[in-house]
């Protein structure tokens, strides 16, 4: 099969087209013939040498895909060859074939193409598990997401709106703010507005989803409402901050967070079940729909990474791996 590997830690230029053997589905796994693969920030971190694959995972980058089941391993009863699926992968998405746990695959939502469905798994698993399962977002609450124009951000805005929350989103340009507003958020241009002041004027955020970290951590705590929750999913500005824990105690705040890739197969399967039961109906109804920024052929994965690192994208970046079938 054709694939793209990381030849050595470094810049986008280290992504190299190669030929690899087709993997074999093990017990409880399926083999997917990939049509489309998503490009995510963890792929960039892995390429740079700072985010190693979990034990037993493919060394190839790529954490989500959509395609057709090409084979099933022992113990798999839910899927059969020919089924159209999108899936969360432990790695290996930058290739024509990849394996994953059968429980981490989901049927293509009614009305979606494989291309659009490929943009769902990584963002849907991440947002749902942190905003709904960990963050407990409720209808009527005030929700703030940083990086509102990213793949994660655009998904978070839509999910929160579909659940009946009031949504604010930070972004760094007029164009990005406009994209957030089109999805139903109140946009805050962080280059000339203070999100703390905006949210405190509105009564404080009940839940914040943050991928920035750094000095945003203390600012997030200051703009939470009493009993508010902060969910961390990344640290683009660094993982360290000095914060006043008295605020957490006296205002009954909660700070949580997670990374998706290292979680157990059982934990990911639980998230997948919730997505199928609660999010997939919203997707099929049109209330939630992945926003796609750009598409690159598999052999141009380096250009896709440059697009990601340039931070000009709005929504998801995809790789076309093979023709839809």
From TrEMBL:
Pfam family, one: ADH_zinc_N
Domain of life (superkingdom): Bacteria
CDD domains from the UniProt entry: p53_inducible_oxidoreductase
Domain Enoyl reductase (ER): 10-319
Signal peptide residues on this chain, from the entry's feature table: none
Matches recorded under SMART domains: PKS_ER
PANTHER family named in the record: OS02G0805600 PROTEIN, QUINONE OXIDOREDUCTASE PIG3-RELATED
Record-given protein name: NAD(P)H-quinone oxidoreductase
């Amino acid at each position: 099969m054709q694939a793209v590997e990381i030849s050595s830690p470094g810049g986008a230029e280290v992504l190299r087209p190669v030929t690899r053997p087709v993997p074999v589905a093990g017990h409880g796994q399926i083999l997917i013939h990939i049509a489309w693969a998503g490009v995510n920030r963890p792929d960039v971190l892995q390429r740079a040498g700072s985010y190693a694959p979990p034990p037993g995972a493919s060394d190839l980058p790529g954490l989500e895909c959509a395609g057709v089941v090409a084979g099933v391993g022992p113990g798999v009863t839910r899927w059969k060859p020919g089924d159209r699926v999108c899936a969360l992968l432990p790695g290996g998405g930058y290739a024509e074939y990849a394996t994953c746990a059968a429980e981490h695959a989901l049927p293509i939502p009614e009305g979606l193409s494989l291309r659009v469905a490929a943009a769902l798994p990584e963002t849907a698993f991440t947002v749902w598990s942190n905003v709904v399962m960990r963050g407990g977002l409720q209808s009527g609450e005030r929700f703030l997401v940083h990086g509102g124009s990213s793949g994660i951000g655009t998904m978070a805005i839509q999910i929160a709106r579909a659940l009946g929350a009031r949504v604010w989103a930070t972004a760094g340009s007029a164009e990005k703010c406009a994209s957030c507003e089109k999805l139903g958020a109140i946009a805050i241009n962080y280059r000339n507005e203070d999100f703390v002041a905006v949210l405190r004027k509105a009564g404080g955020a009940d839940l914040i989803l943050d991928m920035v970290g750094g000095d945003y951590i203390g600012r997030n705590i200051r703009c939470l409402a009493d009993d508010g929750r902060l969910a961390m999913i990344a640290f683009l500005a660094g993982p360290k901050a000095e914060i006043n824990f008295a605020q957490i105690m006296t205002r009954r705040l909660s700070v949580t967070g997670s990374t998706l890739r290292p979680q157990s197969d059982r934990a990911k399967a639980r998230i997948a079940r919730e997505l199928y039961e609660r999010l997939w109906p919203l997707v099929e109804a049109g209330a939630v729909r992945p926003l796609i920024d750009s598409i690159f052929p598999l052999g141009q994965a380096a250009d896709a990474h440059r697009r990601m690192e340039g931070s000009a994208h709005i929504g998801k970046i995809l790789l076309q791996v093979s023709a839809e079938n």
